[in-house]
Design the sequence.
């Protein structure tokens, strides 16, 4: 699979280690090898807990291959920051979309789908569908 | 009413807010430690200090540009939910003011109303949910009459959040235990309106 035209994934968490670990988990469960680009944007630039629009925008630019970027978030300011950037700003690449999905399960589903060559709608649908998987 | 509010006044508004947040940071954090995560004072202090710095460096020439730059700076520096919320408030208000070199109080009231609407959509909160909206909505209504009326309405709105149960944000996890505490977001929103009344007086 060529790297052109692949959907990129951005994982935004209040914690740098959570974002990085979920990215690693998704890469591993997506079959290892060559996956769609996924970038973690966790915590604040000084290493604290929080949300950084700078890290989010840098991550989105890093995974943007021209086919759109799916952004998955944990809670609170992570949700609000991405929504604010999308609603009012021009800092995120064209075709960036906030995906309403559970963070861990959605990240895995999104990366598997993107790596298989799915477009942004397919990636979003797969991530959203992760809400339907009941555990009891 | 003449269009008397120029970029210089809007810069002084943001400077006055930075000073108010500096003065009240401890109180905001104390309120936030009761029902939130105890970072509201330090987050807003970082944000509005950065706003004052950005305005000094870039010296935007219209009221709209002052607020748009302030909003963008808040979103990129705060690191908590108040960043996108206050950032959206100021950025949307600034965009509504357009390129005018000076605006009237009535025009500001209309633009601020649009800004508050954008905050409500972003956070999904309703009046009475114990959020910054509970200070901002009555303030926007009263700003049609006078700056001082807006300040009084915002202060009253913030105080009126004490008996409310939080329905948005981290405080909502506390359920009924959020009752009896003044909302930190409504309190800082009242500081923002108070800073406006101070410089426009």
Sequence:
């Amino acid at each position: 699979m060529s790297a052109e035209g692949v959907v990129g994934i951005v994982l935004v968490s209040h914690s740098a280690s959570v974002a990085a670990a979920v990215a690693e988990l998704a890469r591993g469960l997506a079959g290892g090898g060559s996956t769609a680009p996924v970038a973690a944007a966790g915590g604040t630039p000084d290493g604290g807990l929080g949300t950084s629009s700078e890290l989010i925008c840098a991550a989105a630019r890093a995974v943007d291959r021209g086919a759109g970027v799916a952004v998955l978030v944990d809670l609170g300011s992570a949700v609000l920051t991405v929504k604010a950037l999308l609603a009012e700003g021009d800092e995120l690449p064209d075709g960036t979309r906030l995906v309403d999905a559970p963070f861990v399960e959605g990240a895995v589903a999104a990366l598997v789908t993107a790596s298989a060559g799915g477009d942004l709608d397919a990636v979003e649908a797969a991530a959203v569908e992760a809400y339907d998987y009941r555990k009891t | 009413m003449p269009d008397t509010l120029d970029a210089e006044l809007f810069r002084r508004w943001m400077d006055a807010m930075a000073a108010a947040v500096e003065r009240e940071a401890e109180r905001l954090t104390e309120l936030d430690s009761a029902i939130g995560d105890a970072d509201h004072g330090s987050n807003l202090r970082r944000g509005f200090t950065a706003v004052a710095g950005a305005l000094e460096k870039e010296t935007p020439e219209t009221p709209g540009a002052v607020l748009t730059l302030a909003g963008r700076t808040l979103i990129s520096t705060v690191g908590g939910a108040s960043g996108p919320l206050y950032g959206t408030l100021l950025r949307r208000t600034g965009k509504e003011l357009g390129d005018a070199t000076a605006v009237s109080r009535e025009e500001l009231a209309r633009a601020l109303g649009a800004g508050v609407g954008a905050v409500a959509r972003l956070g999904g909160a309703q009046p009475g949910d114990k959020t910054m909206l509970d200070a901002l909505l009555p303030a926007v209504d009263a700003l049609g009459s006078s700056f001082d009326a807006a300040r009084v309405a915002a202060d009253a709105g913030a105080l009126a959040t004490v008996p409310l149960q939080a329905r948005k944000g981290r405080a909502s996890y506390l359920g009924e235990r959020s009752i009896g505490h003044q909302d930190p977001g409504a309190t800082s929103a009242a500081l923002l309106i108070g800073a406006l009344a101070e410089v426009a007086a």
Observations:
- The CA atoms of residues 45 and 54 of chain A lie 8 Å apart.
- Chain A has one domain: 8-132.
- Helices of chain A lie at 16-29, 53-63, 77-88, 103-115, 120-129.
- Chain A has a mean pLDDT of 93.
